[in-house]
Amino acid sequence: MDLISNGGFLPFSGDSLASQLTTNNLRALNYSNADYDIRHNLTADFLWQVPAKFHNGFLNSVLSGWTVSGKLFARTGSPFSVFNSRISGRLSPAMGGTTLAALLDPSIRTSCGNVDQTCFATSQFATLATQNSFGNLPRNRFRQAGYFDIDSSLLKTITIREGVRFTFGASAYNTLNHPNFGSPGENVAAGGLGVITSTVSAPTSPYGSFQGSAVSGRVMVLTGKFSF
Question: Does residue 126 lie within any of the structural domains?
């Protein structure tokens, strides 16, 4: 829980709200789930050097020296907010930034993990003409789909002579080519509210970890190196 995540600098994701949401009671809407409030998270690494040793030289060269490794990520969804982009000027001509939407339906679904189903509809929120407040739900009240990914590698090392080895193989990022979906449309004043239309990228990829470098689908990398 916090009032604003990362102190308002370097937002955790595209869903982060980096401004004050109300002018009268800061804790009423701001104090809520942090942008990185992920309730369940599992990360696992494994590495297995195949213990194959044969007296036959040919079999030993073919079946020994293999290494299998991988990494698994599995977590529940991160939080996001639903807002009304057209209400700020109506509440105050001098106001800018984000204004949260006003909820009308208390039974609204807050977990949005099904890409084949609309999570919520415009009719469940106040319209431009009827909303006269900074919203009635705190920020980050909703949660997007969870995240799952497996990366793996298969490498073979051949000893050429004493002190000289050659390693070759392949690595697969997002081995299962499993799509991970982002949050649905969050703006009640725009089309696509409650509809999931995009996937999210992996935290890192063969292309680096800077913004825009990663891709959401499977990426294969071939490896070949000499060690001496």
Answer: yes
Write the CA distances from 210 to 175, 180, 201, integer angstroms: 21, 19, 11
Establish how many alpha carbons lie within 13 A of residue 7's alpha carbon, considering only the half-sphere containing its beta carbon: 1
Count of CB atoms within 10 A of residue 218's CB?
Answer: 13
Q: Kindly tell me the sign of the dihedral angle through the C-alpha atoms of 81, 86, 90, 93.
A: positive
Asked if the structure places residue 68 within a domain, the reply is yes
pLDDT in tens, 53-88: 777 777 777 888 899 999 999 999 999 999 888 876
pTM for the model: 0.81
Convert the pLDDT of each residue in 130-185 to its tens digit.
Answer: 777 778 888 899 999 999 999 999 999 988 888 899 999 999 999 999 999 999 99
Given a contact cutoff of 8 angstroms between Cβ atoms, the answer to whether 96 and 180 are in contact is: no
Q: Is the dihedral of CA 87, 91, 92, 96 positive or negative?
A: negative
CA R_g for the chain:
25
Domain enclosing residue 179, as ranges: 35-227
103: β partners: 125
In-domain check, residue 23: no
